[in-house]
Each structure stands twice: as structure tokens, then as C-alpha cells.
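From the thread on structure requests for the teaching lab: each student submitted one protein with a one-line request. Submission from student K.M.:

"Model Putative hydroxymethylpyrimidine transporter CytX from Tatumella ptyseos, C-alpha cells only."
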Amino acid sequence: MVQTRGQFGSYGSVLVVALVVIMYIGFLASNLVLGGQSLHAIYAPVSTDTGILVSAVLSLVACAFGYNLIHAYTKVMSWVSGIILLAAFAWIVFVHGLPTDFLARNGFNLSGFLGAISIAALWQLAYAPYVSDYSRYMPKDISEKSVFWCSYLGCVLGSLFPMILGILVSICIVDGDLITGIVNMTGGLSSTVIIVFALGIAATNAMNLYCGVLCTLTLGQTFLPKWSPLSGARIVVSIVTILIEVLIAIYGQENFLVNYTNFILMLLYVLVPWTAINLVDYYLVAHGNYDVASFFRRDGGIYGYFNSKAIFCYLLGIVVEIPFMSTAIYTGPAANMLGGADISWIIGLAIVSPVYYFLCRTQAVAQTSLVK
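Reply posted by the TA:
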């Protein structure tokens, strides 16, 4: 997220980084609820609240040890989770069996279809800060192409198959409780599936906590550029953050699905304009040439305190999305005309990308010449 200073300026980036911190907080809290529900599903005496606390402790321990442990942990869990996921598919389809009317259940509607596409699109957009935090450790001799494809395929495959499993189970179950549905449909394999699922959530939450703490420290360095936070500062911020997350998870679990849906939609509206600016700037405007030293200067170096053009494009993106928004709180006139379908993210990308390119390309050429 430090790179955002090259697009918005040292102070201009504060809003974007703060929103990303909120994203990490939301994902972390929601995953704590899922972790708690998973532990309760396989061992009823463990309440969901206790399960939330256990998930939080596992996440905190991994985060406290830092990047290397998280990397090693997630590397192992990728293989274990992948194998168990395939086993769950096989058990549900060939052992438990699908209902005879499986393909006839439910029906098509445009708003639901576009809503599903929006969630899938957001899921990929939301990976951008994770990739940003992870790629800062890449050696200089690693090609951009290999980093892109490894990140892209990991994001897509890691989202696609769990989503398909969730759709499969949700069509089959009646009461709408997805965790219980997975337990019932995987039979003798259920305990293993849920345990691996819970351990996978702990790995994901370790990343959410770690990346959220990095962004929080980045905010601090914006106003205290000479401050170099060490591991002690990271651990203190991690403890404070996880305590906040536990409270949010415990008190928000009753309306989990509604809260989570609203949270995802909120993310969609604020992340899309930033993603458009970030990608256009990196690939089409600056072509990856940034003055890294300026990122760590309080005055922003060659990028200044604020980049008014980038901030304008970001706010423009949110404004043009408003008529196309469709939420429980507000539905725009354009969304009403589309039967409640939410295509705001498409509009945001389509407008912000070219506007930012034409407004900032001349300015970026001058900045790039200084870098060289």
C-alpha cells in the first residue's frame, strides 16, 4: 500500500490506506465468526464465542512471528486445503449424492446473476492490497510476468472452487445454514473438512491481521516519517487490533450474513475507483517506474502531499457509482430501472480508468523523468 503514495501523494493516500485497514478488519471479524461456527459445528460443547477466541489466538500467534511463519503456514495449508476440498466435492457428489431435482432448483433472475458476478469481481479486487503487501518482499530478479500469473492464478483458483462448493451445498440445503450443510453432506469426512476449514481460516486471518497492522503502521509513518517500527510495535498493534476484532465478531455474529453482505457492498464501492487508478497508473502511466525514496518522505518527494487529480478521479468514481448502487439501505434510480441489479463497479471502472489516464499521463511523464 506504500505505492499508493505515488498516486495520491503522502497525505492523499491516507484515506485509501485507512479504507484498506477497514477492509482487513471486516474480513478478519467475519472470518472469526466462521471459525467459531466451524469449531462449534464439529464439537458442540465449544460455543461459537469460545471458537471465535480460539481462532483469534491462532491468528495472533502466527502474526506475532511475522511474514516467514505466515508464508510457511499458508504454503502447507494451500496443499492440505486443496486436497480436502477435492475430497469434499467427491464425497458430496458420489457418496452423499445430489437431490434428483438439483438442476431444477431455484431460478434465474438478472439482479441475482449480476449480484453474484459483483461479489466474484470484488473478491478479486479485494486481493490487491494483499498482493501489494506480499510483493514488497519479492527479489528484484523475479519477473513481473511470473509474479502476476502466480498471484492471479492463486487468487482465482483459491476463490473459484470454494465458491462452487458453497453454491453446491447452498442449493441442496433447506435451512440455509451453510456450515451445518457441509457437515451433513460430507458425512464421515465432515470432521476433517471442518478442522481443515478452521485451520485455513486461521491462516487467512493471520494474513488479514498482519496486512492490517502493516497498513496501520504505514499510516503512522505518514505523519512520523523518521519512525521505524520494529517487531514490538507490530505485536502491540496486533494485540489491540485482534481485541477489537473479537468484540466485533462476538456482537455481530447474530446478523452475520446481513452484516457481511453490506460490508462486501461497501468495499465494492470504495475499492473499485482505487483499483482503477492503481492499475492504470502502474501499467499505462508510470509503467512501474516509481521513486521509492519519495514514498518514505513526509512531503511525498516528487509526488507531493496531495495529487489533486488522483483524488478527483477517486471521488468521481464513487459519485458515478451512486445511481447504480443497490443495497438494503439505498437503491439508486439506475439500479431500480435494472430491477435491482448492481452494476456500479462496472460504471466506476469504465469511467475512472480513462479519466485518470488522460488527466495524469503528462504529470507522470515529468515524474518518471525525475526517477530516471
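TA comment: The chain has a mean pLDDT of 84. DSSP finds 15 helices and no strands in the chain.
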